[in-house]
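Notebook p. 47: complex prediction with magnesium ion.
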Amino acid sequence: MIREVGSRSSGFPGRDAIAVSLLGSTGSIGTQALKVVRSEPESFEVAVLGAASSVDVLGAQAREFHPKVVVIADRSAAAKLAHEVPPGTEVLVGTEGLEQAAVLGDVVLNAVVGFAGLPVTLAALGSGKRLALANKESLIAGAPVVQRARQTPGAEIVPVDSEHCALHQCLRAGLGPEEVERLVLTASGGPFRGRARTELEGVTVEEALAHPTWSMGPKITVDSSTLMNKGLEVIEAHELFGIGYDRIQVVVHPQSVVHSMVEFSDGAVVAQLSEPDMRLPIGYALGYPRRLRRQFGAIDWREFSHLDFELPDRDVFECLGLAEQAGREGGLAPAWLNAGNEVAVAAFLHGRISWGEIAQVVAETLGAFDRAKVSEVADVIEADRRARLHAEQVVRHKERAA
Ligand code: NAD
Ligand code: MG
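Predicted complex, structure tokens below:
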């Protein structure tokens, strides 16, 4: 039996401490979220911690934060984890464990990477929780079923992705979607901004992982180098805010200080600016609608004496257009796009395909999309499985040809 959570009073006047369920706690977003919790210990308590397989880190986190529950996806690591957690902390395992844990606490931060985050998103929304969403892949691939779960009374998504968190903040300046002319998503451009196709032929994994402005997990860092991350974020913005694809524009902004903008019907453009540091959007989503104390330094305007904006090079960074195409197609097309991309990125990170072949694998996978109907979560899981099989075949074919 899992103990009750969320009764201690907090730093928020008249409000109890916010109980946070943090799935993906050992990753880049997860560890930064724990920094936010450490910086305002009176405002938060940690109800749940969860990760794929890193027993030692998860055990150390559990001993520091004393959650009610820890979840580990890897069943074979559960027995070892049970010895690492303090008394009173229950260990749950596998996908069912993630689902059970994602209905605890006041706010569920989904910081799992990839399609594996879908059970967390669905369980949190289906139980009427506030979902602080970093795991964009679940919303993108599972859109038809996630949107349904979002209708559950009390369910709410507050985005952690910095651009969407910026849009969420900017949208508070208007009355609703009818006042929105355009969403302008900014992109850093990644490590290969400004390069011609021929200059990108032999790029290495290390070069793709050297992001100029953000320090993130390997999958999203590679996605940033191909602009697939921005393509996924276009779909994410459409799904989150209900704005049509013709009214979502991508602009490259190398300083990563303007995190995104909303253009309203009267021509006013509202932007959110801050140093590029994920603790701001994480804290925003955990504390919403209250703002937390400052987590890091203010913008130094001498450093940012000018801010640059340019259009993305869609011929070199084909993944952006592929994602927009999948988004416009709708249904399960984004699930096929996402699965193809996850397989391609893993193959690139393992040295099986080149950087340029990532877009090819995604394009060929999307080309095989069969327009199957989607009415329940099993349809999404089946689409993901079939798309992965197809993408893996494309990767093998490229390996043989190399
Ligand atoms: P990461 O690789 O650093 O961490 C991933 C976390 O997910 C780890 O804790 C890992 O144990 C856990 N995990 C992986 N597979 C799992 C599974 N099957 N079951 C349970 N847990 C599992 O990734 P990250 O950079 O922190 O990114 C996490 C998510 O946030 C991604 O969806 C990413 O797109 C999004 N995001 C990240 C950033 C960033 O700055 N890192 C910014 C915006 C959005
Ligand atoms: Mg982002």
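Notes: The longest helix spans residues 377-401. The mean pLDDT is 95.
Next step: compare against the earlier run before touching the bench.
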